[in-house]
Amino acid sequence: MEGWDEEIKAHIFWIWGGETGFLKRGREGMLVVTNRRLAFITKTDMSYRAHDVYSRRQIVRFEGNENIFRPIDEYKITHLDKDLENGKNKQIKFNQIVNSKVEDKRWGTALIVEFNFEKLECYKFSIVKSWVKYPAKDPLQFYHVNWKPIISLINNTNL
Predict the structure, then answer these.
(1) Residue 121's CB: how many other CB atoms inside 10 A?
(2) I need a labelling partner for 128 at 20 to 30 A (CA). Which of 11, 54, 66, 153 fits?
(3) Whole-model pTM above 0.85?
(4) Domain tally, the chain
(5) Element of type H or E holding 143
């Protein structure tokens, strides 16, 4: 258990993320941000119904230019810890992060996080707007997102 005072700050759906580099393929998942770590969840025990409801709310918030960086009611630290028991999920503690920045492209924006786990690694996270499902599920379009609140949280916690 990470600690009594850890709390989820944001739960973001439709994330396309993974390690950057030549021939590295992204994966679909959720990005859970606490006041101590980032967690990229690709395998979850969250029900399909809950995932569907909250991901639709995220779309409505995008369309209304509202803040999308918020926690959801049905997912607590205990759920996060349980999901992180699955080896396919990845957590990055803020004290492991060497650099975080935003990559702003014509197609959308991405959060780039460089961290020192066992070696220096770099992950990129983007929020998907639409998908193509055949022959394999891949993102087609991405949202333009202001990642600065997440970067500020990382930087202010990492002092």
Answers:
(1) 17
(2) 153
(3) yes
(4) 1
(5) none
